[in-house]
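Hey L., structure's done. Input below.
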Amino acid sequence: MRTAIVGFVIASAFTIAALAASGGSPVTYIPADQVKAAFAKGSVLIDSGNYMVHASRRDADGQAEVHEKDADIIYMLEGTTTFITGGAVVGGTTTAPDEIRGSSVRGGEARTLSKGDVIVVPKGTPHWFKDVSGPVLYYVVKVR
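Output:
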């Protein structure tokens, strides 16, 4: 678990360094009650254009996803899921600019994710939350 936390801190440090180099933005503070409300439904906390922070929630399996421009840094807070990365999206269709969704992933590598785990999914990599033992709560930092 210590390794996962260290990985999350390192990934966050790189994100912060990139933001600082981009000329900086005002500090954003989100009180705990707003964060809790965001996790209750799963929603975006911050969207700066260069990065996004999601308070994500899954109560069931999701669709397979590919983000053509965004890397995902995922930090698990609660629950357990099988997370598939790589392989090929089954039935993939473009649902928004640079976003592909499908029913599942064929092939790829399966990992069990649970509280405290961190995983970084590079842009263009298929990924899928499968076998969700919900609720699964996690932060996603999307970096463009």
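The CA atoms of residues 15 and 114 lie 23 Å apart. The domain at 2-143 is CATH 2.60.120.370 (Jelly Rolls).

-- N.
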